[in-house]
Amino acid sequence: MLIDTGSSFSWIQCEPCTIYCHSQADPLFNPSASKTYKSLSCATSQCSSLKEATLNSPSCTASNKCIYTASYGDYSYSVGYLSQDLLTLSQSQTFPNFLFGCGQDNEGLFGRAAGILGLARDKLSVLAQVSTKYGGAFSYCLPTATSTAAGGFLTIGKRFLSSYKFTPMFRDGTQNPGLYYLRLTSIIVAGTPLRVAAAQYRVPTVIDSGTVITRLPMSLYSALRGAFVNIMSKKYAQVPGVSILDACFKGTVKSMSVVPEIRMVFQGGADLTLGASNVLIEADKGVTCLAFAGSSQAAIIGNHQQQTFEVAYDVSNSRIGFAARACH
Q1: Which residue(s) pair with 280 in the sheet?
Q2: What percent of the chain has pLDDT over 90?
Q3: Rounded CA gap, 43 and 63, in Å?
Q4: How confident is the model at residue 194 (pLDDT cuts 50, 70, 90)?
Q5: Above 80 in pLDDT, residue 264?
Q6: Sign for the pseudo-dihedral over CA of 265, 271, 272, 275
Q7: Looking at the predicted structure, is the pLDDT value of residue 151 above 90?
Q8: First-to-final CA distance of the chain
C-alpha cells in the first residue's frame, strides 16, 4: 500500500471490483472470505464522518450501504463501500472494527499498490484508530526510486533516534486542518542562502509523503531555480523542460558529478540536506531536472526530497523530526 500523510482515509481494492481495479502486486482482498468483515450503512456515525475525512460527501446505495469517495490532487480517486474488519498488525496487536474503504472503482496513479494507507490527522486515519495501543506517533523512511533492496519502512509508535533534529508541527485552520504543517525558514544552495526576504518563507508549508515533487511559492522557486541553474549550466547543457519541471539538463543523475547541495532549514534548526538523488529527477531518457516546481500559494515538501531520511511525526508532542541516511 501507499503511505500518505496528505490524506486520512485508508482503502484497498476489493473483489468483485464492480467498475475497475488496476493491476496490483498482491492478491485482491475478498470480503466474502472474511468472517469479521462488514459494510456499514448510511445511518452510521462513521458514514457521517466521511465528509471530514475525505473532503467528499458520502452517498448511499439502494440498499443503504455507505459509499465513500477518496480523491487526490492528481485527479486519482477511489470509490467504494465504507467497511469494517479486524486489522492484525501482529499476533498480539489486533484492532477489531478497523474502518477502511473497500474500493470498487479505483482510477489513477496508484502503481501496483493495493490502496492507500491514510496517516493524516482525522479520526478515521490509521494513526487515530491505533493510537490507544501505539500513541500518537509514527515514522517512515522512503527508499530511492532506484533502490534494489527493500530498504524502506513504516513504524507506528515512537522510535525516535538520538540523531533526530526536530521542528515544531502546526495546524492551519485556514487550510486543511488534517495536514501536517511546519515552518520553512531558509533555503541554502551550495552554501549560499537564497537572496529573498524572510517574509517570503511565511507561507503554509505541508509535508506530504503522497506528493512526489516539492512545490514552492513562485518567489522562492524562482530564486532557487536561478541559483541552481547558474551552477549547473556551467557544466551541463540545458534542455527544454518536461511538464512542471523547467530546470532540466542533458544527462542522467549518475553521470552528473557536480550537483549543488540544497539545504532546507526549518524552525528550530532541523533541516533536510539534499544530495544529488534528492535534488534531481530523471524526467525523460537522458533528461534530468531539478526536482522542485513552482506553486501559486502553499509550499509542499514532497517525497522525493524525503527519500533516505527517517521522518518522524510525533503528533502527541506537535513536532516533526528528520534523521539522515536511515535507508537506501
Answers
A1: 290
A2: 89
A3: 12
A4: very high
A5: yes
A6: positive
A7: no
A8: 19
Per the structure block, which three cell numbers stand in for 10?
485508508
- Grid cell digits, residue 100: 477502511
How far apart are the C-alpha atoms of 133 and 235, rounded to whole Å? 54
Which residues are annotated as catalytic? 4, 208
- The pair phi, psi for residue 227, each rounded to 5°, is -65, -40
- CA dist 268 and 79 (Å) reads 41
How far, in Å, CA of 35 to CA of 204, rounded?
Answer: 45
The gap from C-alpha 136 to its chain's centroid, in whole angstroms, comes to 18
pLDDT in tens, 204-251: 999 999 999 999 999 999 999 999 999 999 999 999 999 999 999 999
Q: What's the pLDDT tens digit per position in 270-284?
A: 999 999 999 999 999
Phi-psi region of 135 (alpha: psi -120 to 50; beta: other; left: phi over 0): left
The grid cell for 43 is 445511518
Pairing of strands 93-107, 115-118: unpaired
Residues contacting 264, CB < 8 A, separation 6+: 184, 187, 271, 272, 274, 301, 305
**Where does the pLDDT of residue 172 fall: very low under 50, low under 70, confident under 90, or very high at 90 and above?**
confident
The DSSP line for 71-140 is E-TTS-EEEEEEEEEEEEEETTEEEEEEEEEEEEEEESS-TT-SEEEE-SSSTTSHHHHHHHHH-SEEEE
Residue 220, phi then psi, degrees to nearest 5: -75, -45
Which residue's C-alpha cell is 481494492?
13
